[in-house]
Amino acid sequence: MANYEIDDIFADILERAKALDPANSRSWFDKLTVLHLDGGSLGIGCPDEATVRFLQDNCKNSFTRAAQQVTGHLIAVDFSVSVKSKFAGQPKRSETELRLHPDYTFDNFVVGPSNRLAHASCIAVSQSPGNTYNPLFVYGNSGLGKTHLLHAVCFETRQKFQNTVIRFLSCEEFVNRFIRAIEEGNLVGFQSQFRTVDTLIIDDVQFLREREQSQEEFFHTFNALYNNGKQIILSADSPPGKIPSLEARLISRFNWGLVARIDPPSYETRVAIVQKKAHLRGFSISDEIAEYIARKVQANIRELEGALTTIYAVATTTGSEIDLELAQTALEGQIKASARHISITDIIGVVTNHFDVRLADLQSKKRSQSITEPRQICMFLARNLTNHSLEEIGGHLGGRDHTTVMHACNKINQVKETDPKMNGLLNDLTKQITQPVKI
Ligand code: ADP
Ligand code: MG
Question: Is the CB of 146 within 6 Å of ligand 1?
Answer without folding.
Answer: yes
